[in-house]
Amino acid sequence: MQVESTFERARALKYPEQIVIAIARDPAGKYNPITLGWVTQTSHEPPMFAISIGNTRYSLGVIRAAKEFVLAWPSEHQKDETLFFGTKSGREVDKLAEAGTPTQPARAIDGVLLRDAVANLECRLVSELQTGDHVIFVGQVVAAHVNRRPLNRLYTVGENYQFEGLPRR
Ligand SMILES: Cc1cc2nc3c(=O)[nH]c(=O)nc-3n(C[C@H](O)[C@H](O)[C@H](O)COP(=O)(O)O)c2cc1C
After folding, report:
1. Cys-Cys link to 71, which of 19, 31, 76, 121 (CB 3.0-4.6 A)?
2. What are the residue boundaries of the structural domains of the chain, listed by start?
3. Does 37 contact ligand 1 (Cβ within 6 A)?
4. Are 129 and 136 in contact (CB under 8 A)?
């Protein structure tokens, strides 16, 4: 039986939530990562993903101008970087340099892959939609990469940035 609650109380029950890191090149040539929970695949053929970016994020203008981005699925070993990319802004810091995150060049777009992530998808921006205080960007996957090693993905398992790796089945 359901009992009515506040939205906040219901929302707290949504976890675990997947995490992705979107990376795009800013106008100065710096590759800027942003941690995201709001992401979903939206099409099989062609493969497409939607990400939701807050109006205040530096990444909003960066992705809009670059028209392409990488989506990386962080592994359970990338908790610190995931929090760093999700709490610092590319307006003030070069996040990849400061975190010392190893990268490798993307193949089909002007971008970088996170070398130690579980997988990386190269995406071209195909559309956007304003939804409240966030903008949904839809990207078409144009290249995909997986880690040679089997790794567990990182998830948010509770409020206040509680992260955990969850095993694949
Ligand atoms: C686990 C986690 C999930 C997040 N999910 C989102 C999200 O889906 N959309 C968003 O706009 N910001 C999200 N954020 C917040 C941004 O990552 C954060 O504001 C970041 O510092 C913005 O970086 P930028 O200014 O370089 O773009 C999330 C942060 C964390 C830690």
Report:
1. 121
2. 17-158
3. yes
4. yes
Q: Decide: pTM greater than 0.85.
A: yes
Each residue's pLDDT tens digit, 4-16: 999 999 999 999 9
CATH classification (class only), 17-158: mainly beta
Band (pLDDT 50/70/90 cuts) for residue 33 is very high
Return the best residue to mutate from 36, 52, 81 for the ligand 1 pocket (most ligand atoms within 8 A of CB): 36
168 DSSP assignment: -
Per-residue pLDDT of 111-120, as tens digits, reads 999 999 999 9
Element of type H or E holding 44: none
Determine the residue of 31, 55, 57, 161 to mutate for testing ligand 1's pocket, defined as the one with the most ligand atoms within 8 A of the Cβ atom. 57
Q: Say how far apart CA 165 and CA 168 lie, in whole Å.
A: 9
In this structure, what DSSP letter does residue 148 have? S
Angle at 96 between CA 107 and CA 139, to 5 degrees: 45
3 alpha carbon to ligand 1 midpoint, in Å? 31
